[in-house]
Amino acid sequence: MTEALRKHAWTMGLLALLVVLLAATKLIQPSFGGPGLESLARAALPFAFATAGMAVVVIVGGIDLSVASMMAVCAVTAATLMERMAGVPAIFIVLAVGLGMGLLNGALIVVTRVPDIVVTLAMLFVWEGVALLILETPGGATADWVEDSIRGPFLFGWLPKAFLIIALVTAAIWIPIRRSKLGLSIYATGSDEMAAFRSGVAVGRTKIAAYGICGLFCGFGGLSLAALTGIGEPVPGPYLLASVAAVVLGGVVLGGGRGGLLGPIIAVFILRIIRTILTLMAVDPNVTTIIEGTIMVAVVMLGTAATLRSARR
């Protein structure tokens, strides 16, 4: 029991911080309740999927700067397809597109041996171009039931559908992988790539798989974007730095090999509730953006510093 508490101390601390921030929000606005939680969960939905995908890539020892662009491609693909076909086939096609983009990113990194930050930076512009080829301007339309699936509470007034979707999708993808040989290989590769290779881990295939998982999460992120707006938006949103900040705040080490997905997703809600608090306090939107950016940069800088300190030991 004590060992489990020690192992998950950071995640539990984040959860406690989230509870404190929610309580602070309630004090600032006493009417904050079920509708407020539902709005928070919907706003966090695309950020959570971008963060989950980024977390997997960081755990394997990499980084993906193209997550926002991949989400944009998936969003416009979803909006375009749902104008022409039923929603369910369109969803599977979008998820396949996301998975394919992630696998391509990983394959390029492994085959060319170019640093992941360079490859994914280049692919950021490639996927931006692809999104604009599919839809030059915001357009298309999503199925009504897709929009309804993320709106409102589920059974209880305090349980938003959007939160339930985040939990179910993340658990369905990550828990089986985490407990499989692939999951062990992802952590081993991120911890020490050479040691993993000498232990018989297929490092190249593991990296490609990790980037593929990231692409799959981006597929869900793109679907959530289309469901939130009802259309496809080809211009990437502000999900890159936010996802990196949430990953680091969530306890994933930038050097790889340590962390999980629960902490980063809690961190997403922490960052979003901070924005809500600033809004309720009538802070100027421009100042709010500055504060958010400062927090994100500070978190990433502290995470980088901690990683460098650990590497020197």
How are the SSEs ordered, and which strands pair?
Blueprint lengths: L1 H6 L1 H20 L5 H26 L7 H15 L5 H26 L3 H19 L9 H5 L4 E2 L1 E5 H18 L2 H11 L1 H6 L4 H27 L10 H10 L12 H19 L4 H28 L1
Antiparallel strand pairs: 1-2
Helix pairs in contact: 2-13, 3-8, 3-11, 3-12, 3-13, 4-5, 4-6, 4-11, 5-6, 5-11, 9-11, 12-13, 12-14
What order do the SSEs take from the amino end to the carboxyl end, as H and E?
HHHHHHHEEHHHHHHH
Strand order of the largest sheet: 1-2
The SS-based structural class is: mainly alpha
Largest sheet: 2 strands, antiparallel
User: What share of residues are in beta strands?
Assistant: under 5%
Would you report the number of β strands? 2
| Shape assignment | globular
Helicity level: over 70%
Mean pLDDT value:
88
Distance between the termini: 29 Å
Individual helix count: 14
Compute the CA-based radius of gyration.
19 Å
Low-pLDDT sequence parts: none
Keywords:
313 residues, mainly alpha, 14 helices, 2 strands, 75% helix, globular
Verbal overview:
This protein is mainly alpha-helical. It has a domain at 31-237. 75% of the residues lie in helices and 2% in strands. It has helices at 2-7, 9-28, 34-59, 67-81, 87-112, 116-134, 144-148, 161-178, 181-191, 193-198, 203-229, 240-249, 262-280, 285-312; strands spanning 153-154, 156-160. A two-stranded antiparallel ribbon has the order 1-2.
Put the structure in a nutshell.
By secondary structure, this protein is an all-alpha fold.
